[in-house]
């Protein structure tokens, strides 16, 4: 079963949604048969961070509200994150454009470390106050999940995966994604938002029952012997 997820590294609901989905997947009996693919989505593609500007100020400017209102929004997210074991540190958060970060996630995917890269960047941004828009820091974070520093720097500098990021975003437009996180199960069923783990669990079960592979037919070869693709049974 394939689950595709569009999200942005700096979307607070996306990290919460990631945890809720993971909790559902952990309790899913067929979790080893689930392939999770992360897709890029930038909430603010043209964002240009201002040195020294806090996340509260940046959010207030984006939403057209006061800085105090921006702080209240972030306080709300902090409490929501605690419900899934995440301790958001907005006082440390450094506003960043995520274009390079998404490229690093694609590099991680190339090496079979996509989820680990995604998780490391989200933790760095929300829990540790690290700058995920800085090339040197991204290279460092990549090495922490097993990516080669020289390759990461070269790929990010050359924009090797820039087109892959744009393609993800184009695909999101084509299927009508307006907000993230956005989950697509087997290219048929969609779930929008950081929904409860119970709902994700229900969808996983429903989709698995509908799309689960048919059991291979067994062919009789001798009395008491049956053979299938995995071998023979007595």
Please characterize this protein's 3D structure.
Strands 2-1-3-4 form a four-stranded mixed beta sheet, sandwiched between helices. A three-stranded antiparallel beta sheet has the order 5-6-7, with no helix packed on it. The protein is built from nine helices and seven strands, in the order βαβαααααααββαβββ. By secondary structure, it is α+β, with helices and mostly antiparallel strands. The chain starts with a strand and ends with a strand.
Which regions contain 5 or more consecutive residues with pLDDT less than 50?
A: 217-234
Gap between N and C termini: 31 Å
> Strand arrangement, largest sheet?
2-1-3-4
Strand content: 5-15%
Quickly count the helices. Answer: 9
- What level of helicity do the residues show? 40-55%
C-alpha geometry:
globular
Q: What does the largest sheet look like? A: 4 strands, mixed
* Helix-strand category: alpha+beta
Estimated radius of gyration: 21 Å
Defining key terms:
234 residues; alpha+beta; four-stranded mixed beta sheet; three-stranded antiparallel beta sheet; 9 helices; 48% helix
How would the blueprint of this fold be written?
Layout lengths: L1 E6 L4 H15 L8 E6 L14 H9 L3 H16 L16 H12 L3 H13 L8 H9 L5 H10 L3 H13 L7 E4 L3 E4 L4 H15 L7 E4 L2 E4 L2 E3 L1
Parallel strand pairs: 1-2
Antiparallel strand pairs: 1-3, 3-4, 5-6, 6-7
Helix pairs in contact: 1-9, 2-3, 4-5, 4-6, 6-7
């Amino acid at each position: 079963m394939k689950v595709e997820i569009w999200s942005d590294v700096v979307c607070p609901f996306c990290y919460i949604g990631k945890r809720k989905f993971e909790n559902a997947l952990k309790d899913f009996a067929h979790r080893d048969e689930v392939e999770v693919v992360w897709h890029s989505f930038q909430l603010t593609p043209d964002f240009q961070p201002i040195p020294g500007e806090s996340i509260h100020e940046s959010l207030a400017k984006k939403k057209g509200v006061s800085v105090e209102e921006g702080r209240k929004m972030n306080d709300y997210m902090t409490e929501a994150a605690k419900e899934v074991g995440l301790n958001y540190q907005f006082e440390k958060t450094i506003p960043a454009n995520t274009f390079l970060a998404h490229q690093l996630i694609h590099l991680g995917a190339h090496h079979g470390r996509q989820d680990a890269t995604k998780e490391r960047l989200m933790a760095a941004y929300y829990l540790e106050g690290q700058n995920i828009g800085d090339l040197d820091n991204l290279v460092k974070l990549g090495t922490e999940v097993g990516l080669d520093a020289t390759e990461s720097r070269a790929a990010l500098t050359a924009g090797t995966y820039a087109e892959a990021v744009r393609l993800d975003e184009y695909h999101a437009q084509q299927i009508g994604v307006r907000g993230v996180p956005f989950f697509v199960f087997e290219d048929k069923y969609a779930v929008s938002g950081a929904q409860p783990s119970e709902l994700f669990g229900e969808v996983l079960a429903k989709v698995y029952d509908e799309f689960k592979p048919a059991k291979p037919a067994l062919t009789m070869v001798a009395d008491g012997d049956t053979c299938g693709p995995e071998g023979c049974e007595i």
